[in-house]
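Q: CENP-V/GFA domain-containing protein, please. Structure only.
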Amino acid sequence: MEAGCCCGFVRLRLEQAPLVVHCCHCTSCQRETGSAFSPNIIIEASNVTRLPPAAPAVPAYPGAPEASPPAGPGLHDGQDDGSSLVETLIPSESGEGQTIVRCPKCLAAVWSEYDVPLVKYIKGGTLDRAWLVEPDAHIFVRSKRPFVEISDGKPQFERYYEKIATTQAAALSGASNIAAQIIEAYKAQHPFTLDLVQFARFVLLTMITAPPNYQWQHFLEKALPAYVRVDDGRDLEKRETRLDSLTDEARSKPKLSLRNTLAKWFVDCMTLGAIVNVETVPIMVAGYKVWPIASIVSFSFVPVEKRLVFLSFIGFLWGIYMSLAAARI
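A: Structure for CENP-V/GFA domain-containing protein:
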């Protein structure tokens, strides 16, 4: 597939199929494009090749599958004068911001970059044959314009993908399990050998339980937002933070312990009584010692852009504890 700006100065070739294609309905994409949503082709930067400038052309459409020359005079003579692409950092609904890369001549947005520099978000409208690419999902549908009806049957997400959070959680779970196995081997003074069954069990269990937990966190944020701006906001913010943290712990820890209980029941064929006595209750007690403090510190003192890193580190340590606890049973 090839793509380009309006005037032909920026030309691209996509060497491989994209990782995923989505339609983003966030308010930032609406403002940026002047439309109701933005189709994005997510692809590795290494699979995008910059081509020499070309003469401007009217993009093709199903009734005319070949691009046609413009009716008026050419916008660009096809010569590369060394102009640099224009990069603009703008805010986004996700809170992370995005860098829009534009043609220096016609200022058409060609792709976006986020916090992962190895991936480009090619603007779907820049494709020479844009109708050949269908979206795999719709994101930020909470901001969807009322007149937009999504009837293609593709997955819809209130914000961004749950699968990204699930992948990160699974990777973290796998890393903590490996670390726990290394610690166990060191304590037992025998060579380290990866227990693939235990590793796969932790990763699979995380992949199963992460999506509902993801939805639970969003529900908590809606029901008990950490920060509510009112006139006497400072006291209310602190109260909501404590409620958010304690509610999360009071409701999620029994669920997580029940999850581990059922996993042991099915995977290890242990009796429910034995599991409750040796695993469920100790894990719940340990959880109440760790996560309320971690949540309060996170919501009260850790900047929002660092919060994920902080909680990921706590989760990594917790995963090691869980793996060591499972190894003792």
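A: Brief note, in case it's useful. The helical segments are 27-33, 162-188, 196-223, 233-267, 272-301, 304-327.
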